[in-house]
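Reviewers of the previous submission asked for a worked example of the structure-prediction workflow described in the proposal, so we include one complete record here. The input consisted solely of the amino acid sequence. No template or homolog information was supplied to the procedure at any stage.
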Amino acid sequence: IRIISDSTGGFVSISAADGSLTVAAGGPAGAHSLVYEICQASYPLNCAQATETFDLVLIETTAESFDALPPEGGVAGNVLSSDLLDGVAAQIPDVALTEISSENGLSLNAAGDLNVPIGLPAGDYMLTYEICSAAYPTFCAEQVETVTVTEDPAINAVVTNTHGDNGDGLQ
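From that input alone, the workflow returned the following structure tokens.
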């Protein structure tokens, strides 16, 4: 098998063993074609050309840099805010979002907001999610997000003013 032309600029290879296509990381997104030639092993001059067309979908996930949260919990942020689908911001419904695993009750809502439950002790907690192209559901990428929960600050009461016994009943 020999590649004649490749619209990806060399990011695609073809297996001589089974004819499968492999796309290297960094290839350009979009519709592409690959023209290849296959020849008979016993008679190398007996060849035929074929054209394969395919769409190359790129999904890039990036871990967010969430601000630390207090033990009261809340929304750390949206896990999709720096993820890309074909070079543009990944958004629902263009991608399907799935929570793969999480620690201590972290969760995702349908929009991609990472929710931290109330009462988590101070520490770092992880959640793993996957996004897949809605148009090509087998094109997916996973990402691990880390959220830091801080300690609840201690409240120290300080007396700043005192009252003497002046007969009004207040001390």
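The chain is about 0% helix and 45% strand. We consider this example representative of the routine output the project will generate in years two and three.
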